[in-house]
Design goal:
The Tol-Pal system is composed of five core proteins: the inner membrane proteins TolA, TolQ and TolR, the periplasmic protein TolB and the outer membrane protein Pal. They form a network linking the inner and outer membranes and the peptidoglycan layer. Part of the Tol-Pal system, which plays a role in outer membrane invagination during cell division and is important for maintaining outer membrane integrity. Strand 2 (86-91), helix 4 (98-118) and strand 3 (126-132) form a beta-alpha-beta unit. This protein has helices at residues 2-26, 43-50, 65-80, 98-118, 143-149, and strands at residues 53-55, 86-91, 126-132, 151-156. The chain is elongated, with a radius of gyration of 24 Å. It has a single domain, classed as OmpA-like domain (60s Ribosomal Protein L30, Chain: A), CATH 3.30.1330. The protein is an alpha+beta fold and 161 residues long.
């Protein structure tokens, strides 16, 4: 009798644990860590659904087809949400002198700015800055890192307001 009661109690506990695990599995976030609750027009919407950066080939400031596609989406979004001003940050990988990389980052930021302006974003809403090689996102001594650092990043200046 005691043994049957303990077995029933064990079965209830096992059922509760199973139900909890099933609910937890249903409530998991997306594999990329995004929760899917992005508010349209928010800074998170811009980063997640539009993309805030474009990448460049080595020693280049020419926009690739992929970069232009991302900037097209940015222009569309920025024209829809005109309350935002932006800063375009130009970056370079760690090779080269500081002066060379500052100039290269400036060319990359200006290239992205000029493209956004050509797509209808008011130039008065855009500021550019070059960080050169001072703010890498990846640090290693091969192209897997260098390619991530050769970029222009669009930062929403007033996303928190």
């Amino acid at each position: 009798m005691l043994n049957t009661g303990m077995m029933a109690r064990g079965a209830r506990i096992a059922a509760i644990i199973g139900l909890t695990l099933a609910l937890a599995a249903c409530a998991q976030t997306k594999p990329d860590g995004l929760d899917g609750n992005v508010t349209p027009g928010s800074g998170q919407d811009f980063v997640v659904n539009v993309g805030d950066r474009v990448f460049f080939a080595e020693d280049q400031s020419t926009l690739s087809t992929q970069a232009r596609a991302t900037l097209d989406k940015q222009a569309q979004w920025l024209n829809l949400y005109s309350r935002y001003t932006i800063t375009l940050e130009g970056h370079a990988d760690e090779r080269g002198t500081r002066e060379y990389n500052i100039a290269l980052g400036a060319r990359r930021a200006n290239s992205a700015r000029d493209y956004l302006v050509s797509r209808g974003v008011a130039a008065s809403r855009i500021r550019t800055i070059s960080y050169g090689k001072e703010r890498p996102v990846a640090v290693c001594n091969d192209d897997s890192c260098w390619s991530q650092n050769r970029r222009a990043v669009t930062v929403l200046n007033n996303a928190g307001s």
